[in-house]
Design a protein that fits this description.
heterotrimer; A alpha/beta (about 400); B mainly alpha (about 250); C mainly alpha (about 280); A: about 400 residues; alpha/beta; Rossmann fold; B: about 250 residues; mainly alpha
Chain lengths: ~400, ~250, ~280
């Protein structure tokens, strides 16, 4: 497993990544620039004979006209057609209307921000004989300019996500880096993962196959990836014990990935001739069609050990109960909150939520993986501290801390 | 129309030529470690960083939508092509089963017939076709909902088995389940009134409500928070290439 | 024995005029397949095997049809056709209308001499087609290259792309939707308890509930703590209580779902008894 060490000296792929990233952003930027030109030039597009013939061209022009209209002065509510007296009530009405105005509604303005807009427009407008409507129009225009983020590349409302992300990732990164220097780390026993060897051993003794279900989501879900990495470990055991391993898949990509992972495990165990790619098969993308197929496999092959690791929905209990009826020892793991109860009720061992993601570190005992786990633990500790701090501040009536956590 | 047919033919030939070129390239370059190991990881890294970058762009900036559209299109196209691999595996496996007369080979004929008839009508007429509609409404949907409804039996049998469980955890699970079940139906409060002592002080639907608002919230939130940390750490490992077991063999 | 003698009145397969009723046949097939799948509850048998294989076949076919019409056609085939047709019309300066808004814009600029040379146009066209359509299509073809073992390594590129896409999205969305929101929701306030005048049982009960919630939450988080043995004065009892909270959660969740699942079964029986056997209306 030495090949898994992170080689930071090899910068060539970093270079490549920068190049590709630039090309991607360049294209997107090009798309944006051309899009803007469309909005400007389509008003004059009638001039060209070719475009006048096209029926779609008319709709494009109409869209552009509609887009241009929204940029004009916003509709003024009838309520505002009165003179401005400077009273607090008037300012409040103005703020309420500004927040709701068509062009600023998507910006989620707070009342204090709207108030600043009103004050700024008052300072810029002539002092005498102002109506509420005038102030409203000016403030909305001011707001449009001030809160226009169409050329900005960072959304300040999401800065809390950025800070929280940097904080958590730096913990994880720090411990991952430290782990590389060979510090040994303790990891508590996870019953479900320790039982894997026992389950495969039992299947071998009984001369029955092992069934592995990698969930019903595709490879873009982290739970599936975690499941597939456990599959590697299970395959290593079945290769050593020369037991049949059945992996029915509901996604094509998961099937080809599983084939690679299992082949690798058999290769490492030196049993590559007993690897049967046809045992890792694709059934169908349909949730219940897949369940029908897996149930059929269970009834006919009578596996002695079943693994359900990945994303599961309603099928969790159908699979687990059928597995129980054929007398298999069952190990399940998922982070789907609503399906864990069924696995707990019907399986022998269940990896609850985070335990599924810890599996990779637990089984391989690689220092870097263990380091990441340590980082996660520190993250949990941090969350508890933040919750306690938040409660104390909230009880004392200080709200800025909890306001920071509001997501947009 | 003729021009379109010509173009479609050209497109198909183009993709076939492209595929052949790719295969030739794959065979000649297969010894390059850079291409085999580093470049795929770079793809993974760029894709991930781009998606993170996209999240922080203000939605008013058109780049936000552009990246979103582009990436979803890419994923759609790639997974559409990937489906072919699965279907090839399904069809060849069942053909083998029939030609070698393995156990239950007759049913494989049913599978292949169902498969090919569905794609024939589906690809020919789209979703509007009469035959496709028949297959969808009278075969696909009923079987799907029947499979789903089997859950009712299994929920019952799993609950029955849990009744016999002896550990402290299982008892807690079962007690909570029974209280919530009783609290949700009319009949529940009648049954509840036969339980001595407890029923005098607590109303079952209120108790169920209390369990839901206090314990379920706490438990689900804890699982969610833990799993989120797991998600984040796992994604971090994947993006940096620390976790790459999903690639399979290194050679 | 004829079924009507039993008082049963099944959905007729023939209409009154003697013509075959499509709906009647459909309902018969659906009912038999439904029974076929239910027969699995008794034991594995040939009717279930038939239904199962048919179901897998049809749903795999349906997946292909869905993927083709919903994804492949609108995001690859149709745009390629449209773009190439427009490209042909622009290059040959034909009088046919250009359909795609993007291409229309380019044509307008070309005619108004704002775009530059035709060579530049061809360059940008190729570039756009490559990034939006050809590159993902090449990645897709790399996936298919798995059928030839010596070129199978090419499938790592599309796989890495999809995995990277998923990982990137997951980091930010979980932080956004799970971590920050759930942490914020846990900031309960005990201020009413501190400012309580006299004894108000409502406030006391509310605060007690809040306390149990937060305490249970923290203990359950401690249960997920991996890098220390769950022993000692704090970790031991806390993680034990955490397990209890989780078990109560699972039980409640289980009890909550039972009812919903039974209603599904009722739906199927309504079909069998109503639409097919016509016993209940």
């Amino acid at each position: 497993m030495s090949s898994l060490k992170f080689n930071h000296k090899k910068t060539n792929y970093l270079l490549m990544s920068v190049l590709l990233g630039f090309s991607l952003m360049f294209t997107a930027g090009q798309a944006r620039a051309t899009g803007e030109i469309t909005a400007q030039s389509s008003q004059t597009a009638e001039v060209t004979a070719a475009s006048a013939e096209a029926t779609q061209a008319v709709s494009v022009t109409a869209e552009a006209a509609a887009a241009a209209e929204t940029l004009q002065v916003p509709d003024v509510p009838a309520e505002l057609n009165t003179g401005y007296t400077g009273s607090e009530k008037h300012i409040k009405t103005l703020c309420a209307h500004i927040i709701k105005s068509r062009t600023l509604a998507s910006k989620d303005l707070e009342e204090s921000e709207a108030r600043v807009l009103v004050m700024d427009s008052l300072a810029q407008l002539p002092i005498e004989k102002l109506t509420l409507a005038q102030i409203y129009v000016h403030a909305v225009e001011l707001g449009e300019k001030r809160y226009d983020m169409s050329h900005s590349y960072f959304n300040p409302k999401r800065s809390n996500v950025l800070i929280a992300g940097i904080l958590l990732l730096s913990f994880i990164g720090y411990f991952t880096y430290h782990a590389r220097q060979g510090k040994d780390m303790f990891i508590r026993k996870i019953a479900g993962l320790s039982a894997i060897d026992e389950a495969v051993g039992r299947a071998t003794e009984m001369g029955k196959p092992v069934l592995f279900v990698p969930g019903i989501y595709d490879m873009d879900d982290i739970q599936t990836i975690a499941g597939v990495s456990i599959l590697g470990h299970v395959a290593k055991k079945t290769a050593e014990y020369e037991t049949n391993l059945l992996v029915p898949c509901t996604r094509s990509l998961v099937m080809s990935t599983s084939q690679e992972v299992v082949r690798e495990a058999y290769l490492k165990a030196g049993r590559v001739d007993s690897f049967k790619p046809e045992n890792i098969r694709y059934l169908t993308d349909d949730q219940f069609g897949y369940v029908a197929g897996v149930d059929g496999i269970m009834m006919r092959e009578k596996p002695a050990a079943n693994f359900y690791l990945g994303v599961f929905f309603a099928e969790s209990l159908i699979l687990a109960e059928t597995g129980h009826h054929v007398g298999a020892i069952q190990i399940a793991g998922t982070a789907m909150v609503h399906q864990i109860p069924f696995f707990v009720a019907a399986c022998d061992y269940t990896l609850i939520g985070e335990e599924l993601f810890a599996a990779s570190a637990y089984l391989t005992r690689e220092p870097m993986q263990l380091g990441t786990l340590k980082g996660q633990d520190v993250g949990k500790f941090l969350i508890i501290i933040v919750i306690v701090l938040g409660i104390v501040l909230e009880t004392c009536g200080i709200t800025f801390f909890s306001d920071w956590f509001i997501t947009h | 129309m003729d021009k379109m047919a010509l173009f479609n033919g050209f497109l198909i030939i183009f993709f076939i030529v492209l595929f052949v070129l790719l295969i030739v390239m794959g065979q000649t370059l297969r010894t390059s470690l850079f291409l085999r190991r580093k470049l795929p990881l770079a793809f993974c890294f760029i894709m991930g960083v781009t998606m993170i970058f996209q999240f922080f762009i203000p939605p008013e900036n058109s780049l936000y939508k552009e990246i979103e559209d582009l990436s979803t299109k890419w994923i759609q196209i790639i997974s559409s092509f990937a489906l072919v691999i699965g279907l090839i595996s399904l069809v060849t496996m069942n053909f083998n089963k029939i030609s070698r007369k393995y156990e239950d080979w007759q049913y494989s004929i049913v599978l292949l017939l169902g498969f090919f008839i569905t794609i024939f009508y589906g690809l020919r007429d789209g979703f509007e076709g009469k035959e496709f509609d028949f297959i969808f409404n009278y075969m696909y949907v009923p079987m799907q909902s029947t499979m789903f409804s089997i859950l009712a039996f299994f929920v019952a049998s799993a609950a029955f088995r849990a009744f016999r469980a002896r550990s402290r955890e299982a008892t807690l699970l079962l007690t909570a389940a029974v209280i919530v079940m009783l609290g949700r139906v009319e009949l529940g409060s009648v049954i509840w009134s036969y339980i001595p002592v407890v029923s005098r002080y607590f109303d079952v639907s209120e108790l169920a409500q209390w369990i839901n608002t206090v314990f379920t919230t706490a438990g689900q939130r804890a699982i969610l928070l833990g799993a989120s940390l797991g998600y984040i750490a796992a994604s971090f490992k994947i993006l940096l290439g620390i976790e790459r077991s999903y690639f399979g063999s290194e050679e | 024995m004829p079924l009507f003698m039993l008082g049963l009145n099944f959905k007729p397969v023939f209409e009154t005029g003697g013509a075959v009723s499509v709906e009647g046949i459909g309902i018969w097939i659906a009912a038999l397949l439904t029974l076929g799948i239910y027969s699995f509850l008794y034991k594995d048998n040939f009717v279930y095997k038939f239904s199962e294989y048919l179901f897998v076949g049809i749903s795999a076919g349906y997946t292909l049809v869905l993927t083709f019409h919903k994804y492949l056609k609108p995001s690859l085939i149709e745009p390629l056709q449209e773009y190439s047709r427009d490209f042909y019309h622009i290059i040959t300066s034909s009088s046919f209308p250009v359909v795609n808004p993007w291409m229309l814009d380019w044509q307008t600029q070309l005619i108004a001499n704002k775009f530059g040379t035709q060579f530049q146009f061809i360059f940008w066209f190729t570039f756009k087609i490559f990034i939006f359509y050809l590159f993902p299509a090449i990645l897709g073809l790399m996936m298919i290259s798995r059928v030839i073992p010596s070129a199978a390594w090419l499938s790592r590129f599309p796989l890495a792309t999809i995995v990277g896409y998923g990982s990137g999205i997951v980091i930010v969305t979980t932080l956004h939707a799970s971590v920050l929101e759930q942490v914020k929701a846990s900031f309960v306030s005990f201020a009413p308890l501190l400012h309580m005048k006299g004894i108000d049982w409502g406030i006391i009960a509310q605060s007690a509930n809040d306390f149990i919630l937060v305490f249970g939450l923290c203990c359950a988080i401690i249960y997920f703590y991996f890098s220390a043995e769950h022993k000692g004065v704090i970790l031991g009892p806390a993680s034990n209580f955490g397990i209890w909270v989780l078990m109560i959660t699972f039980g409640a969740s289980f009890g909550y779902t039972v009812m919903a699942r039974i209603s599904l079964l009722i739906g199927r029986f309504q079909f069998l008894l109503g639409d097919w056997m016509q016993l209940v209306k």
